[in-house]
Structure formats: C-alpha cells, structure tokens
Amino acid sequence: MDHDQNFKNLILDYPRQALAFLAETEAAGLDETAHVTPIRQEQLKDRLSDRFREVDVALRVDWPDGRREVLLFVVEEETVPRRFSPHRLARYCLDLAELFETERVVPVVIFLNPGVPGNGLRLGGDHGTYLDFQYLAFSLPAQRAERYRYSRNLVARLNLPNMTYPPGDKVTVYHDAFRGLLDLEPDPERQAKYLDFVDLYARLTPEERAEYERRYPEEARTMSTFVERHEERGRQKGLEQGLEQGLEQGLEQGQQQGEARLLINLLEARFGTLDDATRARVMAADSATLDRWSRRVLTAERAEDVWAGPTAD
Fold this sequence. Notes:
- This protein has helices at about 5-15, 15-20, 85-100, 145-150, 155-160, 170-185, 190-200, 205-215, 215-270, 275-285, 285-295, 305-310, and strands at about 35-40, 55-60, 70-80, 105-110, 120-125, 130-135, 135-140.
- The chain is α/β, with parallel strands linked by helices.
- Among the domains are: about 1-140; about 235-310, no CATH class.
- It has a 5-stranded mixed β-sheet, sandwiched between helices. A two-stranded antiparallel sheet has the order 5-6.
- A hairpin with a 4-residue loop joins β5 and β6.
- The longest helix is centred in the last third of the chain and has 55 residues, at about 215-270.
- It starts with a helix and ends in a 5-residue tail after the last helix.
C-alpha cells in the first residue's frame, strides 16, 4: 500500500484542515485571508548528477495583505519509524529556507505506526551545539479516537481508524469516520475517493462488516450506493476512453489510407499501373514512410527508385 501517496492526496485535497490537525499550534493563525498553496515536491539540483531531495508535501502559506511573513510547512509521512531520517528532512528544510529566503519553516512528520524516534537532530562538539533541528512528531496511534469522534475537521475524522481506541469499538470508529465523510464533504467524487481511504485503514473483517451493516443499516445502504456509483463511473470512464482512443485510431488509420491512395495515384501517373504486391506494400506503410516515398516520387526516374532511395532525404 502506498501510504505516502494516500496521505499526500489527503493533505493536498484538504490543506487547511490537515495543518489544523497535524500542526495545531503553528496553524492557529491561518485565518480565512491566508492562502495555502503546494510547493513543488522536488527541489532544484545544483548539479544534474545530484539526487533530488523530496518529501511528501510542502505547503506555502501567504497573507496577501502582508501582515505576516510567508510560512512554509514541510509534511512527511513515515510508515516505519526506524526508517525515518531527520538528516534528510533537515537538508530539505534548509534547501527550502534558502530557496524562499525565509527562516519560517515548520517540519511535520506523521508517524503511521508506534515508535516515534525522538523529535530532533543536534550536531556539535565538546563545547557546544551548532545545529539544533527539531520537528513536530505527530503519531497517529498516540491520538485517542474518542477526542476526534465528533470533530468538524475532515482530515481528523478520516483518520479515526488510524488512532487508538478499545478493540471492541472498531466498528463504531469506522462508522464515525464514514459519518464524518458524509457530513463534511459534499462532493460525491471526493466522498467515493475517501471512502476508499477509510476502508483501507479500518481493515474490517467480513464479520465486522456484517456487524456494521446490522448496526448502521442506513449508512451501509448509502455506502453501497457510493460503491455502485463509483464502479459505474469507472466503467463509463473506461468506455469513454475506449471510444476516444478508437476514434483517434480510426482517424489516424483513415489519414494513413488516404495518404497511401494518393501515393498510388502519383506512382501510376508517372510509372503506369502497379502490381498487387506493390499496392499492398504502399497500403501497409506507416505515415512517415508514405511521406518519404511521396517526396521521392517527384524526382525518381523509375518506380524502384522510390523504395531504394536513401533513408533520410
């Protein structure tokens, strides 16, 4: 499962709510006048041979009235905590700070599983610390689902299955996440999209799904409608793409056949009637070859010169 991509989609679709959930204190000043825009994930390289430094999501917050300086958020999802590298994150943040000429950078790391490996990086010698880099460590398993059960923050509600709750509450937590999706997201396309998110992280067993359908029959019917509508849209989209591709192929084929017939007419006007094998050869040629032969036919002394000319002219 590509957890990085799942969370990247979630944060880019709901940047304000994501920051309010993941970096509550730092995001407290993001009022309605603030503009939140994504920054390109990969930063420019000094040399073409260098490797890109990249994180999951980088967001820029601007205040058009200029009353606050630009604020950058760097958000990284880490599925396996022991693989997290604060060195890599620090390098990315320093690059970003230099690129945007700012010291206002907030690094945030989402840990999907337990085991947060500290929250900083210190470099120094015997007599001092010369680099002190810290980041906001947001551990989803450390969050109590009960706290966010009725939250109006959709990112929090969708992540209820990733939080801590009593084992017997799994179906209830799934219901609360799905109910939040229905109540807080009016767009049917996004509802279908993030129903998948909830399903992926809830991981209901067949028995738990059956229990959910018994306890919440109305939501279960709504969910079934979502799934059917999503599948129908997928089939319709596939059909439209197939028709579009078929039309393009048909137009290309028709153009190629027209070019082939035109070349046959030119050849017969100059050299007389062509035999069946030559006609078939022309009709089977691609557009680039037909174009090359058509240019040669204007100067060829014999029909054979059309096929035997140089490959580039």
